[in-house]
Structures are given as structure tokens and as C-alpha cells.
Amino acid sequence: MTQAPDPLERFYSVIPAGGIGSRLWPLSRADAPKFLHDLTGSGQTLLRDTWDRLAPLAGDQRIMVVTGRAHRAAVEAQLPELADLNVVLESEPRESTAAIGLAAAILEKREPGVIIGSFAADHVIKGAILFRQTIVEAVAAADAGYIVAIGIRPTEPAIGFGYIKTATPLEIPGAPNAQSVDSFVEKPDLATAEAYVASGHYLWNAGMFIARADRLLEEIGAAEPELLAGLLELADAWDTPRRGAVVDKVWPRLKKIAIDYTVAEPVAARGQLAVIPGQFDWDDVGDFASIAKIHANGRKRDLAILGEGARVLADSSSGIVVSHTGRMIALIGVEDIVVIDTPDALLVTTSANAQKVKAVVDALKLSGSSDVL
Amino acid sequence: MTQAPDPLERFYSVIPAGGIGSRLWPLSRADAPKFLHDLTGSGQTLLRDTWDRLAPLAGDQRIMVVTGRAHRAAVEAQLPELADLNVVLESEPRESTAAIGLAAAILEKREPGVIIGSFAADHVIKGAILFRQTIVEAVAAADAGYIVAIGIRPTEPAIGFGYIKTATPLEIPGAPNAQSVDSFVEKPDLATAEAYVASGHYLWNAGMFIARADRLLEEIGAAEPELLAGLLELADAWDTPRRGAVVDKVWPRLKKIAIDYTVAEPVAARGQLAVIPGQFDWDDVGDFASIAKIHANGRKRDLAILGEGARVLADSSSGIVVSHTGRMIALIGVEDIVVIDTPDALLVTTSANAQKVKAVVDALKLSGSSDVL
Which stretches make up the Nucleotidyl transferase domain (chains A, B) (predicted)? Predict the structure, then answer.
């Protein structure tokens, strides 16, 4: 009897690098999405941070990036190790089921039995070893047939994240911390978030999914058969000269739907979704309050300053300044302030209003100010 | 017996256009002082507003401007009617006694018995007819030998202005509202300002002085004999080919001292200073809170937007935005905010902190950031 290869040897990371990150306008733009920024002060972009975190798991030849055609050059500049074979370009955004599903279909066709993990290009994670331990467990659970999510033990009643309600421990070899998932819940209000945290049954949804590619495709097909058919047609043509023609025909007609709705929620409802609680620090840096928090390192009244060559003079001020202009920025007596200074747009708000930035972007779209989006 | 000419026919306006207006940084700069800005939305600079207010009093041939050499071109561009004869250029700033005293000495030499009024180039006044009535009274009181100040009936316990404490009504023909002055007091704290306003005996010091030139020079000489000697030496040479040489020799050595200390306070202490209460609206627009107040027109929760081509998108925000860059400025949930956006410097503060802007300018000087001053 031949021993099966280590599940991690069958593992492939997928990085969907698509979202602009509207709540980080005017830093994030259509042509400079969130994943191309250094929001942590690490000295490199979030995309590069993501790559560096994933490469040790299965090697840099086993990381696929799904991104828009417009971002190809920027992505390749960030990731010189990225193999051509592993670049999947979207002609237009079709949401996460199409993006992750296409990667799954291509990889399953190339390598039946592959286990894939989907990791956002623009999250912040600290604790590489803990991250790896969590993913190893997740891969084991995926190998056992589960669709696997990663949950983060809440450190505060955050209202900017979705939550995962856990059910019972699962007995999965190699995944001692796996639990079944009761349900996914959307971003709560503060009182609800406090109740979640107090209960001990809720984890932050880190937006990572690990599964056997065939299982993932099966679930997509159960929810959206036409979408699956399109993905399989694309995958059949992908490594052939027909790719361009089939993409042009099929991709624009794929249903735009988040993988949360096609896979995560229905599978959780059937009790077949597992979650591995991650012990590492995680943040989706969804808004400027998030960035300020990361930089304050728990210290209140601090002013975080980002941006090369930033010139900031602050008196009795706290919050975050991002300077991309080299201008002198003077702050006097403004607390929890958010000042984002770019060559063609300036945002002034407060941490408490950071979630409303998306509404401004929507208003700018409506008013025809697309030059600054 | 020949009737003496109407005192107003002997009147000459003097506009010292010198101060940068540090509390309005980064709008006001060494090379773009406060008087060269439109802070009221009138469509013209404060200097031009000042000219237009004074020209009806004695004609545009009887307005003298004292300004720095560096501002000559800008001043003349603003005031095409300004006669060459009426431009007094300072080689370097020597404070208000020297500036106003030199104007007085030159004018007295040219036209003995002249009555002069000194009016800041960068204040905001509404109510041209009331202003004229006040100045007519002031000129009558000056003709009677008084040094005359203009006071404004306080509409609120302002802490940004100096106050004039009145004493008793004076019986001056042509100046029925003249009162003697008990004393000048510096900017008070709020409690003191409230007591001042409640007492009914205090007026805001509008920083305008009207006097016979010979009386003014006499008072300068009583306080600072050397300074007066220098001014007379300058005036003797002024309309001669010796002007340049004498200016180079004398001007840099003149004592730097405000006219408040050489004239206003000592004369008030002797009970020889008159004040005319002005009924017009006045503001020295000393800081951004002042500008915001002027634009809010008494309405709270308003956002004043200044600057040609300003693009501002505001949500739940109030205060003032001055935009000199054409950038899109988005404000979300910031109240009583002050955002001053210029090509090389950005200020973010609140109305309550507006007086602290000068401290930032001082800090920038100390830190060697003179490029933005």
C-alpha cells in the first residue's frame, strides 16, 4: 500500500487580487488598488506581504494570482517569481465565485485532487508560524472533504468584520482544532458584536477558504449550475489556443456572485463547513480606522504617519496621516483624525466615520468626478 | 473772517500694508500676506476692499500705502489708482510707530495741518455709510486736537480682540459720540471678556487711529524722541534726491515699537485719547475661526468654502475649507473643522484651535521649514 502524499504537497494557493478597497479612497484607486499599497509600514505592498506568507506553504511555483488585465504589469512587478502559468487575468470583474471557481477549475484540470486555498491579496497578518499551523490544519480538513474557513478569535467587538458562529468540534485527523460552522453572519452593530464576543461562539471571518478543488466546484455547481458549466468550459480551453476566444465568449456572461453565497453559507447550513480558529493576528484593513489601529499598536492618542517623505507637524493630535505629496501637513488639536493627502484628492474624516468613505466614493461616481476615483 | 476748510478736506488715509497674518498660515505667507487675499468671498482682496472703503472719504489721490518693497508690485496691481507719490516702501519691517509715523511726517511736511487716519489693509468691514459717519466724527475730534481711536460695540465676548475701556462723553463739535478713553486692554480670557461686555464700558479696538499729523508726531516724540528725529530726517529727504541714501542710513536703525505703546496707551493714560464707537460690522479676520464666523453669517453647522475652483464634497461637516489647489476635498463627519489646502502646505485644525496656528508657524521657523512660510 503506497502512502498518500502529504496533503500540503497537493496544496495550491490562490490570491484573488481584485478589490479596489473603496473605503481607503483616495489612497486606493481603480488604478492603484489597496493590494498595491504598503499600509503596514513593512516597506512592501500588501500583495507582496501575502506572497511572502504563502510561498513557504507549498513553494512559489504553487501560487496562482487572479487579477484584472489592467493590473497585470503592477502585479508582475511585485511578484517576479510568479510563473506565467499562474497568472489568471480577468477581462472584467465577475466577483469571487467566478474568480476562485475559475482558479479551482483550471488547477483541478491540471492536477486532479489538488487542494486550494484562497487568500485575499490585501489583508494584514502577523505571526507566520501560527498562520502556517492553521493552514496545515485547514488543508487536512479539506483533504477530508470539508470546505474550510479560517476564523479569528475576536480581540474586541469589531463592527467592520463578518463573524462565523461555531457549532461543535469535529474529529478530523490532522485538524485537531476544526469545528463545524453553524452560520456566517454579516457585520453586526456594536451591541450585537459585544454579545458575539461575550458568547465565545463567534470568530471573525478572515475570508479565507480552503477546499479540494473538486469539492469546491461541486458546491458551486449545486448552487449555480450555469456558472459551473461556464467555469468548466473556460478551464477546458485555458491551456489551449482556444483560451482567448472562449474567455471572450464565456467570462462576461458569468453570474456575479460572492462565494459566501454560493458556497460558504449553503455548505454551513448543511453542517458541512469546517472552521479552523487561527491564533495569528489578522486584519482586513478595511478602512482607515483599521490602519490607525494597527499602527497605534494599542496605544491611544498616537498619530500614525504613513507615506514616503511625509512632512507632518502635529500638536495635540491623534489618528492617522497618509501623505503622498511631500507637502507640509500641520495638524492642531484634532483627535482621531484621518487625513489622506494625495496629489489630486484630500480626505479629512475621523476614525469613527471611516466606514463612510465608501459612500463618498459612491457620491463622487454619481457626480461624475471619475477623475479622482 | 474766512471759514476754515471742512476738516474732511484736510483728511488723508494711510494704509499700513505690512503684516503677514501668521494665524492664517498656510494661506498667508511672506510672499502672499493676508491683505492680498479675498477672505470674504467679495471677489477682491482685503487691500482692495480697504481702498474702496476709503476712497469716498477724501478721494483716491489722498490715500497713502506703506508697504514692504517685496509687495510693491502686488500692491500696485491691486490699486492702479494709487499715485506714485503715495507709495511708501519699507526696506524692512520696523513696526507700526515707524510706518504710520513716517507717513505722518511726510504728509505733514507736504501739507501742514493734515489730518491722517490709519486703517489696516486686512480688516473686514460691512456698512460703508456707518463707517463714513464714524470717520467724519473721528476727523472732527482729531481736528480738535485729540488722538482718536475707533471702537466697536461688542456683539459677543470675543477673546481674539483687544478692548478699549471708555470713560466719559466728550463735548466735541462735530463728534457727538466721542468719549474719552480710560485705557486699552489686551486680548482677554473668556470670563474677562464676558465681564467687559456685560459692563457696557468696553469696545473692541478696531486698530484705527485718526489724528492731526502734527499731534501724532508730537506724541511719538514725547515717547520716543530718537524715533521721531529719525522720522523727521526721513521726511525732510523724502521728496528729494537724497531719499534713498537717507532711508538706507536711518530706516534700519529706527526702534521697532507698536503705535499702541508709543501713542495710544500713554495718551489714554493722560485722558487725551478719544474714541468714536463705530456702528458698522468689523472683524480683523485674525484667524480661521473668524473667517468661518463671517461666512456662517451666524448660522451654525455651516461649511464655508473659499477658493476659486474649489471642489469639496462634505458629509455631516461644518467649519471652513480654503482650497487653492483644485484638488477634490472630501470631508466626512468633521465639525468646526478648518482645512486649508495650498500647493505646498496643508493645515487641518478646528475653530477652537485657530489661535494656535501662529505657534505652528513659529515651530516651522525653528525647524528650518522656511520653504513653506
Answer: 14-297
Burial of A23 (0-12, 13-18, 19+ CB in 10 A): buried
DSSP label of B43: S
Number of domains chain B contains = 2
Q: Is B5 on the interface with A (CB under 8 A)?
A: no
B347 has a chain A CB within 8 A of its CB? yes
CA torsion angle A35 A37 A40 A44 (round to 10): 100
Across the interface, of A315, A346, A360, the residue whose CB is closest to B327 is A346
Four-CA torsion B69, B70, B75, B80, nearest 10 degrees? 70
Residues B49-73 have pLDDT tens digits of: 999 999 999 999 999 999 999 999 9
Put simply, the answer to whether A332 touches B343 (Cβ < 8 Å) is no
Residue pairs spanning A and B at CB distance below 8 A: 124
Burial class (CB in 10 A: 0-12, 13-18, 19+), B226: exposed
CA atoms of B200 and B274, how far apart (whole Å): 17
Q: Say if A1 falls within a structural domain.
A: no
* A193 inside domain: yes
Q: Which of B327, B333, B353 sits opposite A350 (nearest CB)?
A: B333
Query: What is the span of the domain harbouring residue B360?
Result: 289-372
Question: Which domain-ending residue is among B222, B257, B283?
Answer: B283
- Three-class DSSP category at B333: coil
The answer to whether A347 contacts chain B (CB < 8 Å) is yes
Does A349 contact chain B (CB < 8 Å)? yes
Has residue B1 been placed in a domain?
no
A198 touches chain B (CB under 8 A): no
So what's the ipTM on this one? Answer: 0.86
Q: Say if strands A345-350 and A328-332 run parallel, antiparallel, or are unpaired.
A: unpaired
Averages of pLDDT over each 10 residues, chain A, 373 residues:
69 93 92 91 92 94 96 96 96 94 98 97 94 96 97 93 96 96 94 96 97 98 98 98 96 96 95 95 91 75 86 93 94 96 96 92 89 88
Q: Cβ(B227)–Cβ(B257) under 8 Å?
A: yes
